[in-house]
Write a structure and sequence with these properties.
100 residues, alpha+beta, two-stranded antiparallel ribbon, 1 helix
């Protein structure tokens, strides 16, 4: 199943998602819409980066010089954006790097 996400300026993003049949109970009333997929992914990535960065800065008296975190972001058939179980399962693969 392809989700069609209109990004503006006539640009359309198609995301291949699994149609599992039925309704995801967690998605009901979530307000998710295919046109918000990229915006919701950015919000999720930014929140994850801020939390990870804050957590890393509190890891003892000496902060790591370089730290990388990689994760995947998935989109389901209801246009809900979530972290993937592993980076390879994501529709978007994100790598964050902090240099101290």
């Amino acid at each position: 199943m392809l989700l069609e996400s209109h990004l503006g300026d006539g640009l359309v993003l198609f995301i291949d998602v699994e149609n599992q049949g039925g309704v995801d109970k967690n998605a009901v009333g979530s307000g998710a819409h295919p046109d918000m997929i990229v915006d919701n992914a950015i919000i999720l990535i930014q929140a994850a980066a801020e939390r990870m960065g804050a957590g890393l800065s509190m890891q003892g008296p000496v902060a790591p010089v370089t730290m990388e975190v990689e994760f995947g972001v998935r989109v389901d058939a209801n246009a809900v954006v979530a972290l993937a179980r592993c980076p390879e399962e994501g529709h978007f693969r994100v790598k964050l790097r902090w240099d101290g």
